[in-house]
Write a structure and sequence with these properties.
Elements lengths: L1 E5 L8 E5 L1 E3 L4 E2 L11 H15 L9 H4 L14 H5 L19 H9 L29
Antiparallel strand pairs: 1-2, 3-4
């Protein structure tokens, strides 16, 4: 099924289109209002842009992320995480937090607020030891 509908009044020259199945189990069609978890598709774009910044000298891959983004609030155990750790999925950061904060202009802000109370580093060892940035293999990291 394909759905085409006019865009908002603020962009009268645009049209929105949707095609496909939202859920293969139910056969529910995709609509212009359907939401999708972005997931892995953004990794390639993000890595490409980050590497362009590094290549131009505008970003040091080995600098702690909190130095690159000073407003980023990380726990003390996560403050050593670098961009290189993030790109190679060895940061040890918990990456599988899927809290639904709804729709609207403030849904991202609500999600970020929810993350304030989340555990930032996953425990990797059976004895409960916290992951050390750079020591986590991509296969064992939840942010892969």
């Amino acid at each position: 099924m394909t759905q085409v509908s006019p865009s908002s009044d603020s962009a009268p020259d645009e049209a929105l289109a949707a095609h496909g199945v939202l859920h293969v189990g139910t056969g529910a069609p995709v609509s212009t209002e359907s939401l999708f978890q972005i997931g892995s598709i953004t990794k390639v774009w993000t890595a490409s842009l980050v590497m362009q910044l590094a290549d131009s000298g505008a970003l040091d891959l080995d600098a702690p992320v909190v130095e690159v983004v000073p407003s980023l609030e990380l726990s003390s155990s996560a403050r050593a995480v670098t961009t290189r750790h993030l790109l190679s999925h060895t940061s040890g950061l918990e990456g599988d937090i899927f809290t639904d904060t709804g729709r609207g202009d403030d849904c991202v802000a609500r999600y970020v607020e929810e993350l304030r109370s989340a555990s930032q580093m996953f425990t990797r060892e059976p004895d409960g030891r916290t992951a050390i940035p750079g020591s986590c293999s991509p296969a064992g990291s939840s942010n892969s």
